[in-house]
């Protein structure tokens, strides 16, 4: 489905954090200003939970576990939020959003900052984010 931004992204993708037969993991955009913000997306265009195969969903749990462990090796994560809405983009996807120890922003404002790239300040550069991605891959 070429009108789908996630399918399009997978087609054009030259670098992922992780990939297996069912899932692709990429890092969120620098505009989110959240290091360790990850997207987990099924390779297939799936819009409803009932369309998933059992195998796809069975693989998602251990993948979330693996990704949280990897992010925790790089960042002082207190809580790892796992959010899936798939409203604006219907291709179902998970957002993994780390909330760090001593971080003021939490809950819905942090989810909004990540998913809608609503950050008041720029603290993380593209270069820092790329470095983070490379470090993260070593733990997966
Ligand atoms: Zn799609």
What does this structure look like?
Strands 1-2-3-5-4 form a five-stranded antiparallel beta sheet, sandwiched between helices. Strand 1 and strand 2 (23-27) form a beta hairpin. The chain is α+β, with helices and mostly antiparallel strands. The chain has a single domain, classed as HIT-like (HIT family, subunit A). It contains four helices and five strands; from the N terminus they run αβββαββαα. The chain binds zinc ion (ZN).
Summarize the structure.
With 140 residues, the protein is α+β, with helices and mostly antiparallel strands. It has helices at 5-12, 54-74, 108-116, 126-137, and strands spanning 18-19, 23-27, 38-42, 77-83, 94-100. The protein has a single domain (5-137), classed as HIT-like (HIT family, subunit A).
Q: What keywords describe this structure?
A:
alpha+beta; binds zinc ion; 5-stranded antiparallel β-sheet; 5 strands; 4 helices; HIT family, subunit A
